[in-house]
Amino acid sequence: GAVVSQHPSRVICKSGTSVKIECRSLDFQATTMFWYRQFPKQSLMLMATSNEGSKATYEQGVEKDKFLINHASLTLSTLTVTSAHPEDSSFYICSAETGLGNTEAFFGQGTRLTVV
Amino acid sequence: GENVEQHPSTLSVQEGDSAVIKCTYSDSASNYFPWYKQELGKRPQLIIDIRSNVGEKKDQRIAVTLNKTAKHFSLHITETQPEDSAVYFCAAYTFTSYDKVIFGPGTSLSVIP
């Protein structure tokens, strides 16, 4: 299957700082990328859907000014957690689709964010 | 809003027995239903999927059934093995003018040797 690479896999940051997470499709062009948040022993909660070249569509309750998403190219989307606080600590995962009639989504390996 | 329910939340079976996990969805426009297996600390892996124009799909020990009228779909694992132990998530995708996906809350499956 296609490969989606997510970096970093783990990050610890101080409260008030910003953290950028990258999601790259390595061997295909991703027209759509999804960003999820997953708390321990819970399901994946969709945060936003991003399409290349357009603004991301955020789910209800997700602060767009806090979770900045940029999908600048067909192979890269970034999620920036701005002014991070301890409650933002979580597992963030991206997934990408080719959008060419193949609706399978390929997941990145996830990013464990800890805000201290 | 749209919702996906999943039952049971935990499931223990003896090795060799079958396991069934059921999901219901609320958005009648949903048209793609994948199942993911997630091991602790790892990314979800697609194990099987089904589209809205198909009622059943099978891949070796894994099968999925879809009832669009009732808006529910199920995962069936036969001849379970200890390596099947993981958390399983169903999801409902809606591909219209924009893509939308909702995941079920997950089922923790334990296969007892």
Number of strands of chain B: 11
Mean pLDDT score of chain A: 89
User: What structural class should be given to the helix and strand makeup of chain B?
Assistant: mainly beta
Number of discrete helical segments of chain A: 0
User: What's the order of the H and E elements of chain B?
Assistant: EEEEEEEEEEE
Mean pLDDT of chain B: 91
The level of helicity of chain A is: under 10%
Tertiary shape of chain A: globular
In total, the number of strands of chain A is 11
Strand percentage of chain A, roughly?
over 45%
- The unreliable regions of chain A are none
> Multimeric state of these chains?
heterodimer
- Rg of Cα set of chain A: 13 Å
Q: Number of helical segments of chain B? A: 0
How is the main sheet of chain B built? 6 strands, mixed
Runs of chain B in which pLDDT lies below 50 for 5 or more consecutive residues are: none
Taking all Cα atoms into account, the compactness measure Rg of chain B is 14 Å
The first-to-last residue Cα distance of chain A is 37 Å
Largest interface: A-B, 23 and 25 residues
Main β-sheet of chain A, in a few words?
7 strands, mixed
> Gap between N and C termini of chain B, in Å?
41 Å
